[in-house]
Amino acid sequence: MSDSKKHTHEEVRLMKGNEAIAHAAIRCGCDGYFGYPITPQSEIMETLMDEEPWNSTGMVVLQAESETSSINMVYGAASCGKKSMTSSSSPGVSLMQEGISYIAAGELPCLIVNVMRGGPGLGTIQPSQADYFQAVKGGGHGDYKLITLAPASVQEMADHTVLAFDLAFKYRTPAMILADGIIGQMMEKVILPPFQPRLTEEEIRTRMPWATLGKPASRKPNVITTLSLDAQEMEDTNIRLQAKYREIEKNEVLFEEVECEDADYLIIAFGTCARVSQKAVDMARAEGIKVGLIRPITLFPFPTDIISKYADKVKSMLTIEMSAGQMVEDVRLAVNGRVPVEFYGRMGGMNPSPDGVYNALMTKLVNK
Amino acid sequence: MTTNEIINPANLVYAKTKVMNDTPMHYCPGCSHGVVHKIIGEIIDDMGVQENTIGIAPVGCAVFAYKYLDIDWQQAAHGRAPALATAVKRLLPDRLVFTYQGDGDLAAIGTAETIHACNRGENIAIIFINNGIYGMTGGQMAPTTLHGMKSSTSPNGRTVPLNGHPLDITKLLAMLDGTCYVTRQAVHNVAGVRKTKKAIRKAFENSMLGKGTSIVEVVSTCSSGWKLTPEASNDWMVENMFPAYPLGDLKDL
Questions:
Q1: pLDDT tens digit string along B147-183?
Q2: Which residue in A286, B23, B85, B211 has a CA-CA distance of 20 to 30 Å to A18?
Q3: CATH code 3.30.70.330 for A255-366
Q4: Which pLDDT does position A4 carry in this prediction?
Q5: pLDDT value, residue A193
Q6: Among candidates B116, B113, B160, B126, which has minimal Cα distance to B141?
């Protein structure tokens, strides 16, 4: 296939989750990627560099000197109304937190991909979900939120790239894809999204009148700044941000329900843990134990209402995570003490097995 | 001359550039920032690029540069202006993109961004205000603070065992293959203002010609931080700063 045709139509491919993000970014009209290598997500930038989208769509791809610099390149690009993104893994995303806070405060749309690895510290290169708190509770300084998507397949790595940009621009706020190293590294069949052209400068000026593209005589200067020396002005900014987050909570919750209708017990898990838990649900159902699975697809906004609804129906719940137990706190807030909420997880790069989840289900819930 | 004669347009000998607005500046009397702002406004006006310019403001006293010059601005996190400028210029190659940074911003917290933007030869202009002190936060030691110079965090004067040496980052940047024009100027007198204006104009033109990164260091006064009158600040700068940071072109390709 010639290069000119490569990005122009829907096609089924076999590839890694990381590669799917790169292809989806090119196809959805991303203007700029700025990144720094770190395992287990380096294939994102490697794929982009190999695809050379600057020759097809005009997308800019640049390897920065650090994650600090990449996120600030994204800040500059997003300030121009451009569809821009970066990607990294846990330690690198920690380094980006200052920039993410600025981007949230500046009300700028962008995509940040975190393909999580085990921590704390330099940690491991194996998969983890231990950056849940960092992603959904803010991460950097000040009160802000990231729209956080949790893909559980290579297909969702591609789909969420498109969705994350759409949501980021809809709400003028940064969005994060919070994947784990397994989803980034594993290969699956994927239908790549259809090609959308990058926005023209005229389209950006119309749709993003705040963008700093150069000041025509017809308008006042556009200034992207996050500084207010007046505390009342800063509180007003915070009130506006919080109103936006409430709106996102109202409109954008996504989750998947698996065999929940008749369930006596409920497992809540995202990403890789949801796929492992699905197998454990099958094992338990084969034993006649009625177990359901809720897979949050958006971690912020969290599917609080659906979990709250099931708190009146099931006997107990179990969250499965590759962490010491982070999402479990949000599940407990949703349940608000009505039924026991137990936790089973592995840490530091280890992932739960179906047997491990099944055993936890039996010992912590069914036979308790 | 009467007042009416003075304000008669026919007698006009000087006009403020339209790129600079009427917002009263927050800068202290005797500070170099205001003069450099005016120079930048005049150059943008002269080059006819007001609609085509994006400035990147730093953290530090010049954080509010965006209040005074009527162009589109982005205000960067401390030290990150060259990263923002890199992305803006790469996405909008026909725009004039410049950063305006102080010594703490450019030569301490932003050292990596500065060096790598220059080393990649980004087609941006960097205006570097070096007054050897952190002005905005109240006069702390900067990377460019001179040997023996007092600041609120070197109250007995900068010493090598405690604080190391003043960093001549401009000399370092001149060594990088990505820079095309590296110069050091000052705005302490009329000749200096004229030379600085010429230098910044050249830096802006270079970036539009795609020649690489241009850096104009302006050795500057900080009368409040130095605890001197405006006039004494100028004299102190000439006597103490110029020997450490000599004026002139370090590189001009």
A1: 999 999 999 999 999 999 999 999 999 999 999 999 9
A2: B85
A3: no
A4: 46
A5: 95
A6: B160
Shortest Cα distance from B70 to chain A (angstroms)?
6
CA neighbours closer than 13 Å in the CB half-sphere of residue A309: 9
Q: What is the pLDDT of residues A154-170, one digit of tens each?
A: 999 999 999 999 999 99
In chain B, which ranges are E strands? Answer: 53-57, 72-75, 96-102, 125-130, 133-134, 140-141, 179-186, 213-219, 248-252
pLDDT tens digits along A277-298:
999 999 999 999 999 999 999 9
Cis peptide before A120 (omega within 30 of 0): yes
What is the C-alpha separation between A234 and A10, in angstroms, rounded? Answer: 45
Question: B73, A72: Cβ pair inside 8 Å?
Answer: no
Interface test with A, best of B47, B54, B94 (most A CBs within 10 A): B54
ipTM of the complex: 0.96
Residue B23 contacts A where some CB pair is shorter than 8 Å = no
Q: Is the pTM of this model over 0.90?
A: yes
The alpha-carbon radius of gyration of chain A (Å, integer) is 21
**Planar angle of CA B223, B224, B226, nearest 5 degrees:** 65
Where do you find CATH 3.40.50.920 in chain A? 255-366
**Architecture of the structural domain at A3-202:** 3-Layer(aba) Sandwich (3.40)
Residue type, A112: I
The pLDDT of residue A9 is: 61
CATH topology of domain B29-138+152-252: Rossmann fold (3.40.50)
Distance (Å) of CA A355 to CA A180, A276, A318:
20, 9, 15
What are the tokens at A63? 């390897």
Chain centroid to Cα A43, Å, comes to 17
B63 part of contact set with chain A, CB < 8 Å: yes
Q: How many cross-chain Cβ pairs, A to B, lie less than 8 Å apart?
A: 123
Asked if pLDDT for residue A8 goes beyond 60, the answer is no
Of A142, A100, A182, A101, nearest in space to A352 by CA: A182
Q: Can you read off the two tokens belonging to residue B182?
A: 């590296």
Per-residue model confidence (pLDDT) at position B100:
98
Mean pLDDT of B11-21: 91
Nearest CA to A319 among A348, A337, A340?
A340
pLDDT tens per residue across span B79-113: 999 999 999 999 999 999 999 999 999 999 999 99
Tokens of B162: 């405690």
CA distances to A154, A158, A159, B243 from A13, rounded to whole Å, are 10, 11, 14, 65
